[in-house]
Design a protein that fits this description.
Elements lengths: L6 H12 L5 H7 L4 H13 L19 E9 L4 H12 L4 E6 L6 E7 L2 H13 L4 E9 L36
Antiparallel strand pairs: 1-3, 1-4, 2-3
Length: 178
């Protein structure tokens, strides 16, 4: 996919990823644009599909989540219809925080959030291993999580790059947190 982004678009994305609560006026000042121009760019990024939904980060414990786990799932067969059916099933499960279709020894890695070990056992038995597509399940408990909500900037540098390209993560300038 080519989204045709320039240096200013990347700067807007950097700022929004670090603080989605910035007002348009604050964002415009941070990237040195007039507020109307900045708003137009943000709206264009949304129309292009570059910017998706904005969500609040909620502490899992506040919602009764006492345990997180990674489930490695191997399918019995790999036909498209079975794969589609399993994906549809995974999307219907509120415990599945993220699902990854992967290569290697397993076909899926699932990040699940549950109340406790009994909930995890029941979820694994009732929602995963009971499925006809599933051949094998391995469970790993998550003791701690560190995530990076900011995507790296891989704007190309050199000939043909959009004006002002920063050339990837080494040239990335992170906005201050405050």
């Amino acid at each position: 996919m080519n989204f045709d982004l320039d240096r200013i678009d990347f700067e807007i994305l950097d700022r929004i990823q670090n603080n989605a609560r910035l007002s348009n006026k604050e964002l415009a000042a941070a990237v040195h644009l007039a507020p109307s121009t900045c708003l137009g760019r943000v709206q264009a990024l949304r129309r292009k599909g570059v910017l998706g939904a904005v969500r609040a980060e909620v502490l899992p414990e506040a919602l009764g989540v006492g345990l997180q786990a990674l489930l490695a799932v191997r399918l019995e067969q790999h036909g498209r219809s079975k794969l589609r059916a399993f994906w549809k099933h995974l999307r219907s499960l509120p415990e599945v925080r993220a699902a990854f279709h992967v290569s290697g020894a397993h076909d899926f890695l699932l990040h699940v959030t549950v109340r406790d070990s009994r909930h995890l056992r029941d979820f694994a038995l009732d929602a995963i291993t009971s499925r006809p597509e599933v051949a094998h399940l391995e469970t790993s408990l998550v003791f701690d999580v560190a995530t990076n909500p900011v995507l790296p900037n891989f704007l190309p540098a050199g000939p043909g790059a959009k004006e002002g390209g920063r050339g990837g993560p080494a040239g990335r300038r992170r906005p201050s947190a405050g």
